[in-house]
Structures are given as structure tokens and as C-alpha cells.
What we know:
The structure holds two protein chains of two kinds. Chain A is an alpha/beta fold. Chain A has helices at 3-21, 52-65, 82-91, 105-111, 142-156, 171-187, 204-216, 230-240, 267-279, 306-320, and strands at 36-40, 70-74, 96-99, 119-122, 135-140, 161-166, 192-197, 221-225, 243-248, 259-264, 286-290, 296-297. Chain B is built from 13 helices and no strands. In chain B, helix 1 (6-31) runs antiparallel to helix 11 and helix 2 runs parallel beside helix 4 (89-111).
Amino acid sequence: xxxxxxxxxxxxxxxxxxxxxxxxxxxxxxxxxxxxxxxxxxxxxxxxxxxxxxxxxxxxxxxxxxxxxxxxxxxxxxxxxxxxxxxxxxxxxxxxxxxxxxxxxxxxxxxxxxxxxxxxxxxxxxxxxxxxxxxxxxxxxxxxxxxxxxxxxxxxxxxxxxxxxxxxxxxxxxxxxxxxxxxxxxxxxxxxxxxxxxxxxxxxxxxxxxxxxxxxxxxxxxxxxxxxxxxxxxxxxxxxxxxxxxxxxxxxxxxxxxxxxxxxxxxxxxxxxxxxxxxxxxxxxxxxxxxxxxxxxxxxxxxxxxxxxxxxxxxxxxxxxxxxxxxxxxxxxx
Amino acid sequence: xxxxxxxxxxxxxxxxxxxxxxxxxxxxxxxxxxxxxxxxxxxxxxxxxxxxxxxxxxxxxxxxxxxxxxxxxxxxxxxxxxxxxxxxxxxxxxxxxxxxxxxxxxxxxxxxxxxxxxxxxxxxxxxxxxxxxxxxxxxxxxxxxxxxxxxxxxxxxxxxxxxxxxxxxxxxxxxxxxxxxxxxxxxxxxxxxxxxxxxxxxxxxxxxxxxxxxxxxxxxxxxxxxxxxxxxxxxxxxxxxxxxxxxxxxxxxxxxxxxxxxxxxxxxxxxxxxxxxxxxxxxxxxxxxxxxxxx
Lengths: 334, 295
């Protein structure tokens, strides 16, 4: 072996040793083998869930259809079983395990340090990483997202009362509601904001009745985030003849009569970013945060008076551009 | 006052109505001597059939008919397993619930692309603008139907010869058989009727109330109906009263959130009421034959 070849051999060996000593690498760039991933949902049938989980499911489709990932989807995993489910995937040799809700943070924190060879990605609202090098998060400014919904609802309301209806009272949802309250007040000082939780993400009748109660209390615009029970909210809104603002994806097709607009998040783009990060080997622990500039207001289909819609879009646009400041207040919502 | 608030009353009736249908089914089955533990599954199948039928046929009333037919099929399956074979009624009931949960989830995904995500509104089948429509407009149609069917069930059970045969099959099958009653046939027919009621209750939940379907949408309502029957000591009137009490519990749980505090505590109210109902009915004497497996 010539000196030159020996040096090349040692350099290659050193490179491999360096990679191994780093303790973690999901997948070398340009690997021929498809990435094996598991995605964990706490709702059933996420592709049909209307809202956040449907957005996530579209992202999963991107991983499969555009990036050729070999993806397993676990639906309706209850919170107490999350850590075991994720651990089972890691032990079975999955390269990436994806969590899809801020209610999964506990499991994410617990499992990530135990399986350093698997990448644990969080696709939801987080503020801190687990104590592990193999954790990655694609998060949003949920407070800013709530502010936009609150502004839209306040400016569209005729009764002067709006309501935020959520599923389970997880921290992200409480922050979202706080954003709604402050956003609404910043756009209209005399607005009254009601808040309520249905208690979970799947009980459609309960979500319906909780929403009906807010409407009885005077709310004429409902800002919703009820996960798999979104259709219960929609039914209450449609039956009462008021309007609602959709969460994450455009839910207009679900109830053309009663959906005023939706505040959209480009959730599939987070999955796209994850796929690129894995392909390029950029899997170092970090939180990639998406702010208000990445959210958009869906078409209102002429439901609002032209001047009101112009004011509404202008107000939200100024907030997105940073020209309008909204106080950050943590409300103790019930 | 909360209980006099019309919206609260309509809310509790919406909640109690599916329970009333299902509870009548449980009552008929158990009065004939068959434990109807599988009622949750039958209700779930009825809920899915009601949703699918209403969505595809464009009518909530036709959805209810589909729910009844699906419930009858469930009743036939239960009759085959618990009367013809007969297998252990508790084990069959539990297994039936699990199978139905799986079947409905699978079928829901299969039909997701063809069925609309929401069903048409259920309204009285009378012309709009007429005096009758104005008068009926304030009455929930399914609640009226549930009360009418409950009254009919009570009349049938306690005022007719078939009702006497059914109760005798549940009280003492040997005595009934010696009097010429075909116990197997009576129980089979009772299970078909019970399935129809459970299916109707499920369809009342989806096509008549929330106008959509999701996995396990019944969320234990079949078991609550079972508890209502025990609470009502196998009498239709008391059973309906128990359903209304559970409806009040759930409606209160929604409204109590506005009082402040942890919302999860309020959401426990209907389940605590169920537990209390079953505990209070602990000494109640049910039909003696219910649960016995011997042929």
C-alpha cells in the first residue's frame, strides 16, 4: 500500500470513527435505503380529522410520495402509551419517530435520550428540547397564531362576543387561547372573549355541546381547535347560524355555510424541512420555529362586508409585518 | 335557574335521546333473559350505518332506517351466538363490542372517499311554513319518537300476551317452556328488537345529533344505557328517568365549566352518576334468567 493510499485509508477510517463517536447519525446523505419512519397521532383517522392532524397527515403523505420514505402511522395512541409506542419503534430499528402534538412532549423528553440511534422529531409547539442530541422540533409561535385568530374573530363579530373552543387543555392550547384574548382586545377593546375546552380531541358530541353553550352565551364567532371533534363544533355553529374560524387547514369545504375563514399553517412544509434535514444529514438538536409571517388567512368567500374584510386583513398584515405589537400575557383560561 | 333554561333542557334532551333508544333495547333483551353486554357494539354499528346511510341517501330519516337495519343484523348475530349456540353471554358481549369497534373503524376508512363528512339536518317531515311545522318546530323529533317507543315498549311488555311470554322467558325459562313458550324463539325475536333499538340509538347519535362519525363515537354510551336499565330496575318508565338524569349530568358538565376550576372535574359528572346509579341499583332483582348460558 502506498503512503498516499494508506493516508486515504486512515482518513476514511478516522471519518467513520468520528461518526461513530458522535453517537448518532440517522442516515448518511444519498443512502439508497429509504428512511424508515413512524408517525404517532393521538387522534383516530388523522387524514380525515379536519385541522392540525389533517395538516400533519398531508405532511406524512409528502414524506411517502415525494421523498420515498417508508412510513408507519400509529393512530389514536393514548397519552399514557406514547412513550412505550415510540420506544417500540426505536427498538425495531426505525430511523425517525415523529410526534405530532404538544401533548406528546413528555414522551419525547422521556424516550429521546434512551435511543440515541433514532431521530425523534416533534411537529408541534415546544419551547425546549429534551436532553438528547437526537431530538429535533418544528414548532410554531402558537401565541402569535392565536393573536391572528383573535383579531379576525373580534373584527368580524357583530355581537361583540367571541369564543375560543379547544380540545384537551394542553399547554400549547392554553397559550393559543391567551393569544386569542390579547389579539382580540388589541383589535377591538370592547370585545368579550369566552373560552372553553371539550376535554379531549375525539368526543364529537361533547365538542358540539360545549360550542353550543358558548353560542348561547352570546358568541357569534367561534375560533376552534378541537382536533378530531372539529365536526361537533361545526355542527353547533351551523345549527345556530353563526360563523367559525378554522384551525391549521382550510375547513371551508366541511361547512360552507358556517366557516368564515381559517388561519392556515403550512404544516406539510415542516415535514418537507425534516426530509431535507435528514437527507442532508443536518439532524443536530434544534428547534425550527415558524412565526406569524408563515400563517395566512384563507379566503372569506365574500362573507364579510368589503370594508370590514379590508380592515381585518390590514390589521393582521400589520401584525405579521411587526408593525403592530400585541402584549404577551399568559391567561389562566378555563 | 339552570334547570329551567330552555337551552339547557334542549341540551339534556339531545344527550338523553340516544340513551333512551338504546336503554329500551337493553331492557327488552334482559327481560327475555339475555344479558346485552354487546349493546355498545350494536350502537356503534348503528351509528356508522346511520351516518353512512344519511350521507349517501341525503336524508337523516333514511339514515335512521339504515341504523335500525344494521342494529337488527347485530341482534341476529347476538341471537345466533347466545341463543342458538349458546355461548357465554358476558364473553360474547365483550368480544362483540371489540369486533364492532374494529369493523366500524375499518369501514369508516373504506368509505371516507365516497361518503360526505357531514349528514343532512334532521327535521320534522312536514312542509315548512305550515301551522303544524311551526308547532312541531320546537320539539326535537327523535325525543318524541324515543318517548313514544318507550311507551309502546312498556305497553307491549306489561299489557300484551307477547310481552308476558317475553318476561316469562326471562323469569323462568323452564316454567315458560312448560307453558308452551318457545323460549329460544322469544329470545331471538327480543334480540332482533333490542338490536334495532340499539342501532336506532346509534343512528340518533350520528344522523340525528352530531351529523358526523368518528372512531368509537359512542364513547361508552351503550354502557351508560345499560346502567340506566339497572338504575331503572328493568322498568321502562324508571329507565327513561335514569336516561334523563344522565343527560342532566352531561349537560351540567358542559355548563359547569363556566363556573371556573378544573374542567376535567366537571366532565366526570355523568360517569359518577352512572357509578352511583349502578351502586344504588345493587340490590335490585333483575330477570332471573339473564346471563345463564345453559341451552
